[in-house]
Amino acid sequence: MARPGLIHSAPGLPDTCALLQPPAASAAAAPSMSGPDVETPSAIQICRIMRPDDANVAGNVHGGTILKMIEEAGAIISTRHCNSQNGERCVAALARVERTDFLSPMCIGEVAHVSAEITYTSKHSVEVQVNVMSENILTGAKKLTNKATLWYVPLSLKNVDKVLEVPPVVYSRQEQEEEGRKRYEAQKLERMETKWRNGDIVQPVLNPEPNTVSYSQSSLIHLVGPSDCTLHGFVHGGVTMKLMDEVAGIVAARHCKTNIVTASVDAINFHDKIRKGCVITISGRMTFTSNKSMEIEVLVDADPVVDSSQKRYRAASAFFTYVSLSQEGRSLPVPQLVPETEDEKKRFEEGKGRYLQMKAKRQGHPWQRAQCPFPPWPKTQFTLRAGVV
């Protein structure tokens, strides 16, 4: 077999590479992925060493950093596939991050290996499965840290509002196509469940009391520049997720005043595209606390300041779960949230319902418990859900 070629996955990242594998090799390299047989390259891998600016003060890599790498790998492989046949050229845009499992932490100095593989295509979308391995380059030890499923849609380079058709793939088993079609239909239904929250906003409160929602709520304002965007001039989904994780982390740190880490992302919904030149406001507020976890709702609003014809709009929303850690990496009890208004009490009960539902789901999957040797890392499953066309 010929030696795979190496290419840089992004300009300005000399230690990042994308490994192109033929379909036969991808099955051996990533046995947990069972993608279809395709004539075009079906699997890639990007890798990068984790630096101090990728992590928090305790040395744990930010969840947003890993999410951004996952999205980069998915964008590369889906864009390649969508341009594998003659026709109108396009860029694959992130439409949905459906689910990811964070099985163990990643630290400064470790190498992240992000493997992506196409597992299903519909007429206008591509499903990509991504695995993340961490490698200790001193000992050579590797471990699986993350899993994710992402959906992309091909947008024409000539007309950003035009969604092109996706080249079909050939499945080795008929069951693969049927299972993929079921996943595709399910994520379309789930997207509709979250649109009703689009009008909700976060309002500042003067002199809030400790442990209240107002005390820890935080906002970040960011001007969208060229480095944040795709060839179309729209923000990368990974950039948005990284900023959302940053705000959620600030909320969690203000509430418990300890070292905190991302434990889960229960739902991410991309409601609309964000153009270059927009000013985006990322707002976070705590919605629920259990004994050792905090749920934070994050809202992203875009203000097209260079386009007076368009009003401010809701671009994305998500629920993040954080845990508090001691200096030894053990999970700590968190201060209990004190909801004050009727809306805060309602959101608290909704968050409690999500927490109990996820807890019951974890207890019903012994494989997930076996993959998560806790403590010291919190026993939490990571799930992402976002909007798709």
From TrEMBL:
| UniProt-recorded name of the protein | palmitoyl-CoA hydrolase
Keywords attached to this Swiss-Prot or TrEMBL record, sorted alphabetically, are: Cytoplasm, Hydrolase, Lipid metabolism, Repeat, Serine esterase
Q: Matching Gene3D superfamilies, A to Z?
A: Hotdog Thioesterase
Write down the InterPro entries for this protein, in alphabetical order.
Cytosol_ACT (IPR040170), HOTDOG_ACOT (IPR033120), HotDog_dom_sf (IPR029069), Thioestr_dom (IPR006683)
Give the subcellular location: Cytoplasm
Q: What is the lineage of its organism?
A: Eukaryota, Metazoa, Chordata, Craniata, Vertebrata
Where does it mainly reside?
Answer: cytoplasm
Under the heading Pfam families, the entry gives: 4HBT (PF03061)
Q: Which PANTHER family match?
A: ACYL COENZYME A THIOESTER HYDROLASE (PTHR11049), CYTOSOLIC ACYL COENZYME A THIOESTER HYDROLASE (PTHR11049:SF24)
The EC number of this protein is: 3.1.2.2
Q: Which residues form the HotDog ACOT-type domain?
A: 40-158, 214-328
Q: Which GO terms describe its molecular function?
A: carboxylic ester hydrolase activity; fatty acyl-CoA hydrolase activity
Q: Which residues form the active site?
A: 56, 245
Q: Which GO terms describe its cellular component?
A: cytoplasm
